[in-house]
Amino acid sequence: MPRSIMWFRQDLRLSDNPALTAAVAANDTLAVYILDDINSQDWKMGAASRWWLHHSLQALNDSLQGNLLVLAGDPLQLLPHLAESVGATQVHWNRCYEPWRIARDKALKEHLNEMSIEVTSHKAALLWEPWEVKKKDGTPYQVFTPFYRKGCLQAATPATPIAAPKHIAWYPELKRHDLAKALGKQGIDALALLPSIPWDRTMQDTWQIGEHAAQKRLESFLEQGLENYKEGRNFPERNNVSRLSPHFHFGEISPQQAWIEAQRAGLEGQFDDDLDCFQSEIGWREFSNSLLYYKPDLPVANLQKKFDRFPWANNKTHLEAWQKGMTGYPLVDAGMRELWQTGYMHNRVRMVVGSFLVKNLLMHWHHGEAWFWDCLVDADLAANSASWQWIAGCGADAAPYFRVFNPVTQSERFDAKATYIRKYVPEIATLPNKYIHNPSAAPQYILDEAGVQIGKDYPKAIVELKRSRERALEAFKSL
């Protein structure tokens, strides 16, 4: 009887996992996770992602009844060794789309094939493979709307999710322990994913992690958040956001599951516009991965080359104020503090803080990308890179250079009662709604009545919005 290896990666679930389903059809299955970013150079997982991964692996191992072998190292060496040690004739994995993983997987497949081991990669992270969605002339799309409307929605209908395997014959436990012992350090704790300084306490209160938590999160969103999603998702204090992005990134839930379940809920509730808007957000994730697949230098190089000449500023004081949520603009600061405390930031606020960094402060989008990479629990190379290029104006389907999000008017419009601001910037909570969105412009007697001292309790605005906007427009026009 054949013996297989199931290599878990960004697919930490049992249901709708085609590689797992194929692997367990064999006699004995060895389930393995390898922390494989040791050769990724600049794109090792950030601290928040590592924290999430620790708990996600624990949840997966529980679902696998303790049968997950957890290692760290180079899969190019480890997987052939494991296959030879256990006598595996098959290796299964689900495809990833980071450039370094694609190159590594190709070499690994060739190596295993030379050992007469059958290797099968499966689609599990995307609804449509990048090579399945192209223009009529065979070239990839560069603009999101036609990519989604003409490409994705005209392509094959997303497949029905497959159920988790009911019966799995695992590689014998004693032999697995002997194998792990021979390989040295192993196990989830040995990966040392948790921070040495307990900054993650507020994150623990924010999230439930793992496949079951992801399913509950989807159900809750469809019941309480899908209705009025198109409008409500712009308001940080409302429930109209799915918060599924970290679950998607680590594969605790598949895009097929979210797509199909949302379709059912949308059709039953007649939320046509809301359903379309939610599914288009899944489409943006597909678009980002398509961009990364065809433009592997997306994380480091401007897609619009004229931005190579852009006169970026280099103000470390401004960058640090932005990172710490101390810019003097409450909506920006609330977003940056939400990021630090929870590993997440509301999407509308992400656009505002991104615009403020690259346009009002004229700081290179790489600074924002790097900070988000380290702080986001949903840090995804494709989405992070594509989104920062979008807000900077240098991406494939970028926001026009003259679109500068005003953090004060955005705050007044989308957080009118300052609920979000008061939660994350409590030192100005006593200010009346009329002045809380821009404390630096409040009359002194208002500040005195509220007991707020600008420059002491809360910083004075680090730049003036009108002048910094004009400076940005001049820089953009110079290109």
Textual characterization of the structure:
There is one protein chain. The protein is an alpha/beta fold and 479 residues long. The chain contains 22 helices and five strands. The chain has three domains: 1-123, Rossmann fold (3-Layer(aba) Sandwich), CATH 3.40.50; 126-160 and 212-294, Serine Threonine Protein Phosphatase 5, Tetratricopeptide repeat (Alpha Horseshoe), CATH 1.25.40.80; 305-477, DNA Cyclobutane Dipyrimidine Photolyase, subunit A, domain 3. A five-stranded parallel sheet has the order 3-2-1-4-5. The radius of gyration is 24 Å and the shape is globular. The model has no long low-confidence stretch (mean pLDDT 94).
Précis, in short:
With 479 residues, this protein is of the alpha/beta class. It has helices spanning 18-23, 47-63, 75-86, 99-114, 144-152, 173-182, 201-206, 211-224, 229-232, 245-249, 255-269, 272-294, 316-324, 330-342, 347-360, 365-375, 381-392, 407-414, 419-424, 433-436, 444-450, 465-477, and strands at residues 3-8, 28-35, 68-72, 90-94, 118-122. It contains 22 helices and five strands.
Key features?
DNA Cyclobutane Dipyrimidine Photolyase, subunit A, domain 3, 479 residues, single chain, five-stranded parallel β-sheet, 5 strands, Serine Threonine Protein Phosphatase 5, Tetratricopeptide repeat, Rossmann fold, alpha/beta
